[in-house]
User: What shape does this take?
Amino acid sequence: MPDDPASVRAARSLISELVAHGVRDVVLAPGSRSAPLAYAAVEAAEAGRLTLHVRIDERSAGFLALGLSRGSALTWGAGAGTGRRGGEPDLAAPDRAAPDRAEADLAAVPAGTPDLTAAAPLEPLAPLAGDPVAVITTSGTAVANLHPAVLEAHHTGVPLILLTADRPHELRGTGASQTTHQPGVFAGAVRYEADVPAPSGTDLATRTAEARDVAALAARAASAALGLRDGTPGPVHLNLSYRDPLHPTTPPELPGHPEGRGAIVPGAAAGVNRPVTVVVPDTVRHHASPALPGHPGRTVVVAGDGAGPRARRLAEAQSWPLLAEPSSGACGGPSTIPAYRLVLGEDGPAGEIQQAVVFGRPTLSRPVQRMLARPDVTVTVVAPGGLPWPDAVRNAAQVVPGLAPEWYEPWDDADHDWLARWQAAGRAAAAVIDEVTRDEAVADSPTALSVARAVATVLGDDDVLVVGSSNPVRDLDLVLGMDDLGGLPAVVANRGLAGIDGTVSTATGVALAAARTGRRTRALLGDLALLHDVGGLLRGPGEPPVDLEIVVVNDDGGSIFATLEHGELAATSDAAAARFERVFGTPHGANLAQLCAGYGVDHQLVKDVPSLRHALQAPSRGVQVIEVQVPRAARHAETRDLARRVAEAVRGVA
Assistant: This one.
């Protein structure tokens, strides 16, 4: 029986090596040039070495992979509001050993205290990355369709391994079908890239050399994706050339064949005889760094997307107010200030801020950015890793990789009155929000804010919520934690570039990963986000089942623009309103029930908030869309009225 072609052997070796380096999931978009990778992936899946997901749309496939990786990070455990538990690896995943990614935390020591960093226990600089997830596409425009997910993964540090098939070098630039210049297509958005020549395998020596090359390539790709050397995980791109023939000549083994099972170690591919390459995570050297320069009694902690639990720990230890975005992983606890962005818009304690300590990437709130831009506020940005630090207003006094452990210990001289004043302001703001979102206030028609609150109230600390960009995440920002139900869900949001694209696919990936540890996933998004990624609802009959409830706030268009300056202008005349409706409101009139029926997805239209809560509390299997229709015309007035009422309430307690 003849050997399999060189393309098939090389693809099989690459998939095996990637599995050895921690790849558990592969997302495949079908194609011809990528056939060797498809055969290799399905063989590994049938042998129980990985889980294969097939999607016909490459853009959806990219976001599904992003969601799978982000969902896997939730199982690692490490703090309040993130779904992590005490920093321990998840014991429910028996085949997974926690990689050693410990990194040091640089010191920023209070004035007058000794430098204790040399003796301090090391603390991770950044939240652990999730599992690396591989995505397979064919050549041509298929590759370009990965770009939105790649950009999101780049900006949020999600480890994706992009395996793009290509024509061999002799066919490039010749007018060959489905052939373009793929190397470098993702430019500066990938941590590592390689343009891999087509294998030949003409003799034993060549096969041995190519197998060694594949093993080394997989080690570099996986380590770069996980950020093991520099602490900056993210996407990597392997552009893989294959010559015909592209299919195996040997018959496939039966699924689950015992010879196909067993652990794989790096470098175990046939023909590889070399020491295994082990990538050791880099650590930051201990140096003394300056103390936090501002007045300790007038400090706030800002926790943006991906901040992690250390932001909450710092705020609680120092009795500082915590302004935490929903996807920060820091929400909850006595320091968290509800509706902080509305409180920031007023005088009182907000006007007295002298220092801000920033974790993560705060992107939701203009009031937060205005506060960080104030010349009388000293800003310290805690930015681990090598990515650009978040300082959009360009006002940071210092940027440090981390704070010394003593900052996270309770301080006897903390100004508890400072926190108490913020807590009072937060309670006043929350009381106003309670008034406008309680059932009787929205009995005639639900509002987007009341929908967000209803979703938040039914979620526990073992649940996962994927929230869409635009209004849903901002509505959640105002209500999350307002009802003290004993726990907060892990919140996942694509805030790297804050786009609405790929949200359904991201939520699907998160749900698949979270279900492995018994966690339930829901999504909250707008109608445009659903329509933009409606292809994410499509799942073939052979694909792993997914349980996911998607709450869609349907206001027939883009209501976020009504909350911005465009909404103010639209209110000035009928002509301005008509122009706004055409280019910003963008009504679509889509029938979501019929759309879901076409994809074989359950759909439920609920008329009021109690019905929404009932639907969310009922048992549910598979993918279900729960639609809540809300009026868009009133959004501008609702936003303005809420800000006015909160301002009055905060002034009353300031």
Remarks:
- The radius of gyration is 26 Å.
- Residues 6-95+131-260 form a domain with the Rossmann fold fold (CATH 3.40.50.970).
- Confidence is low (pLDDT under 50) at residues 77-127, 256-263, 271-290.
- The CA atoms of residues 1 and 250 lie 7 Å apart.
